[in-house]
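Sharing a chain and its predicted structure for anyone who wants a worked example. Both blocks are below, sequence first, C-alpha cells second.
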Amino acid sequence: MVTKTREGQLLETFVTLADTLVADYDVVDLLHTLVEKCAALLEASAAGIILSAGDGELEVVASTNERSRLVEILQLRAGSGPCVESFTSGLAVAVPDIDSTGDKWPKFRQGALAQGFASMHAVPLRLRATTIGSLNLFWDRTGGLSTADTNTVQALADVATIGILQERAIRESDIVRQQLQHALSSRVLIEQAKGVVAYTHGVHMGDAFDKIREYARHNGLPLADVAERIVNRVLILSRCSVSRD
C-alpha cells in the first residue's frame, strides 16, 4: 500500500471539496466533508463548524462526532469560548493547552476537559469583512499547530466560506429573479387590464390605470390580482360601481 504524503492528502482534500462545489450541491454535505477531511489531515480528535444565521444566533451545523458537538453546544449556551471568540473577532484562536486557560472560558474549559480534549484551534469562516462562523479542531493532546498547518486550516475554512456564500448568493439571486419575473408578468397583466377598462369606459389609459389602482387600494387587493380578474372578465369595473360576472 502506498502511503500518501501530507501534500498529497492536502491536494486530495482540495480536489474533494472542489468536486463538491458543483451545480445543485448540498452545502451541508460540503461542511461535513470539510470537517471530516480536516480532522483526518491534521490528525484531530474531532472537528466542528458553527454558523451564524444572521440574527446573532450561532448553531452547530457539522461535526465529526458527538463529542465536538457537545463541547460547542456548551460554549454556545455560555456565549463564550474560543469558537465563539473566533467568530466575533474574525481571527484565529489557538488554545494549545485547554487546562491552562483558567477562568477565561470556565464553562468551555470544564466541558472540553470532561470530554477528554486537551487542545483546540478555531479559525473564522470569513470572506473580507463578512464572518459567518468558525471551523474548530480538537485534540486529545496538548500542543499547537505549526504555521504551515495553521495556514492550511484557514485555507480550507476559506473554501467552505466561499461555498456557503455562493450557495446563499444563488438562493438569493433565484428569489430576486422570481420577484423580477413576477413584476414583469404583473406589468403585462396591468397593461392588458388598462386596455380593457379604457375601451369599455372610453377613457385614456392613464385614467384607466387610476381606476384599477383605486379599486385595488379600496379593497386591499394586489394590483396584479385585480388586473388579472379584469383581463379574465371575472371583475368588471363600472363608472359608479363594481360588478362581477
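Comments welcome. The beta strands are 46-52, 58-63, 93-95, 119-127, 130-139, 235-237, 242-244.
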